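[[Local backbone shapes]]
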Amino acid sequence: MRSIRLRAPGGLDQLHLVEEDPPEPGPGDLLVRIRASSLNFHDHMVVLGKIPCAGDRIPMTDGAGEVIAVGGGVDEFHPGQMVVSTFYPHWLGGEPTPAAKRDIPGEMVDGYAREYACMPAHAFTKAPTGYTPVEAATLTCAGVTAWRGLVVAGQVRPGDTVLVLGTGAVSLFALQFAKAAGALVIATSSSEEKLEKLKRLGADAVINHKAVPDWGREARDWTGGRGVDHVIEVGGPATLAQSIAACRTGGHIALIGLLTGFVAEVSIPALFSNQIRVSGISVGSRADQEDMIRAIEANRLKPSIDRSFPLHGIADAFRYYESQRHFGKVCLEL
């Protein structure tokens, strides 16, 4: 089988296509012919060597394809079924524990930049009915993160107002989940072209955060001064103050991303005086993924996909991802 191996110390020039023997399923395992993967911020940090992992690791946390064989004791899946990987193979449900958050594919164990993967059956869920492998491969990291931030932690309700930042995959999934829940959505971008695409995707209001530096107050003003109920906060240090300014009293911030750095100065009085709840979100559980997929099927949602690359073009895929020209997921097709 063809696989991509990342050699230490990392970097796009250290991604190498190799030929390897396909694995064999043992008891409790699935052997899956991987057909697609998708790029995430986490994968980018791994391949650049900013998240350390063992040398010669197969990268990519997201994988989707069809079941080829099942090991003994597996009755949830059958050959020919389309499945999609989970980010935390051992976080099956409930609240996370350190033990449940081990063995992250593409970082702690080999990931899905390979034609065949053998993993415990609980490392996968069924893919949404009617989804292509590329569509299913967008869900593992970005989809579940948006779902947990908005639905599980945020408990979004009809009539709520949700603020999503930028046009990354988590924000686009959150926009779709919010609209499916009957919420209103304010979306930001620095690109007028992308703002138009956000409106076509369902955003009720858009803000050019480059043209309007005080976009948090702008979002609050759009709500008539009340403030938004939820913020999908993917920026980090450079955006958190504005996200706080946008929130209503008692509002919720799903703290997800670190796109602008790792350390922020936060106005503590602004948080406690307005009783703003901040939830740290690190993807989600297998049960969260299954709930999300049921909602996707019920609402007939489809992910936004920008472009796909072949497996041997993985470095080009990451270069395109770095350009920030994309709107939606950048994927690999195997």
User: Anything to note?
Assistant: The radius of gyration is 20 Å.
